[in-house]
Amino acid sequence: MLETKAISNSEVLYVGGDDGDTSPTTKVLHDFQINSGGGLIRSWVDSMRACSPTRPKSFNSQSCWIKEHPSALNMFEEILHKSEGKQIVMFLDYDGTLSPIVDDPDRAFMSKKMRNTVRKLAKCFPTAIVSGRCREKVSSFVKLTELYYAGSHGMDIKGPEQGSKYKKENQSLLCQPATEFLPVINEVYKKLVENTQSIPGAKVENNKFCASVHFRCVEENKWSDLAHQVRSVLKNYPKLMLTQGRKVLEIRPIIKWDKGKALEFLLESLGYDNCTDVFPIYIGDDRTDEDAFKILRDKKQGLGILVSKYAKETNASYSLQEPDEVMVFLERLVEWKQSRCGA
């Protein structure tokens, strides 16, 4: 049986900023609505720089940030203590978390060692990949059928195909709350490809329920030109919004759905909604992961781990510097679980 998530328009439409939310996503949407011309572009470029730091802040700032967001490796025993007696559920971003950030997003391959680590992790805990990528693409990178996958920033969720002991028998899971936006995303993708051809290094990716404009290979003095070209397309689509991540601009439907909502949906699907004995751990490196970090922080449930070498504003509790540290953290979790089970 195929279990689908039915969501009405009234449930998913944003009411821009009325709830006082000051999350990064809401801030960018607010800027897009109230700014015009040069003010808007300056706001976008400033946000692009903030999302994609290329150098650490001052030593004092970096040191203070580390005290507030200590290494998850150094604090591993503390994390285990917090999870004592609870079911750990793992949520993992892909780019910059399981694989390094590379110039060509089509070549963001995870290592065999990381894949083996995630495979072992999924045998110990329910495990989901939550990515801005198209679900089919991130699944083709990871190549593990026993995982839950949430693509397009959580707008395309599918349960394990096989091999998961957490999957309900004879039941498949599918959640696609933004299906009605598929035609307009395809249309915008084509226009973005055309409009950004004049910007060297720009690459547009169709991620099914969102379109991504990568500027990893664009010179910083061209970021303003790129923002102009993206705005020239987006201004004609009032039901779409711009959010920003690590060297990427994301064009997404204006619906009340993000990685935080995906986390909540997956916990509910696993039977852990409103449970006090569940401990979600979400690991991600991008601004879009902040929606999930904020959910966990506000609920005082589980914890978020930001993957970053540089100090960044975050709702995460702990930090790791790079995918190699993520792998070590996951390996330690597996070893701890196996020792508890006598495996």
UniProtKB/TrEMBL annotation:
Keywords: Hydrolase, Stress response. It is an enzyme of class 3 (hydrolase). The keyword Hydrolase applies. It comes from the Eukaryota. Removes the phosphate from trehalose 6-phosphate to produce free trehalose. Trehalose accumulation in plant may improve abiotic stress tolerance. Belongs to the trehalose phosphatase family. This is Trehalose 6-phosphate phosphatase. It comes from Arabidopsis thaliana.
